[in-house]
Amino acid sequence: MKYNVVVASKNPVKVNAALDGLKRMFPEDAFMPTPVSVPSGVADQPMSDQETLHGALNRVENARASHPEADFWIGIEGGIEKFNGELAAFAWVVVQDREQTGKARSGAFFLPKAVQELVEQGLELGDADDQVFGHSNSKQKGGAIGLLTQNALDRRELYEQAVVLALVPFKNKAYYLNPRQEQQV
């Protein structure tokens, strides 16, 4: 089948992560992306797990309102949260179709102190990364994780895994739409 997918971002990293995750879970289908810039309703740099999830949910709702004819809507929101004095970075992914919603969080990693200090002064993570590592527009490339791992893992891969996890309910609709109904595996 061929599906229209609205990705709630024009950032190529997020668009490609969404498409790659969909292709991994549904290799027999085709996905036609429509990247849209919609507001998250949260700070440019979400500073908690809850705020980050809220931003991803808002992006999906705003994408759905702007393109109600689509088959899927996907929101990806990167965020950070402080744990024991250190900042961890991660993302939330929310996927909707006409019947259900899937949500998942990416893996998390801790940021270097120099990056943490700039973020705590009000810079977005991508801007702090660019300043500390001497790069430009890293958030549309490998992101902090790409810089820190010398691209052994980049932002698209980190987000793609969370997209796959958010698609679990779509791959297993019988279990998620009819939770009381016993199913054969």
Overview of the structural elements:
- This protein has a single domain, classed as Maf protein, CATH 3.90.950.10.
- It has 8 helices and 6 strands.
- The protein has helices at 12-25, 49-66, 113-120, 125-133, 143-149, 155-166, 168-171, 173-177, and strands at residues 2-7, 30-35, 72-83, 86-96, 101-105, 109-110.
- Helix 1 packs across helix 6 (155-166) and helix 3 crosses helix 4.
- The longest helix is centred in the first third of the chain and has 18 residues, at 49-66.
- It is globular.
- It starts with a strand and ends in an 8-residue tail after the last helix.
- Mg(2+) binds at residue 69.
- Belongs to the YjjX NTPase family.
- Its EC number is 3.6.1.73.
- It catalyses: ITP + H2O = IDP + phosphate + H(+); XTP + H2O = XDP + phosphate + H(+).
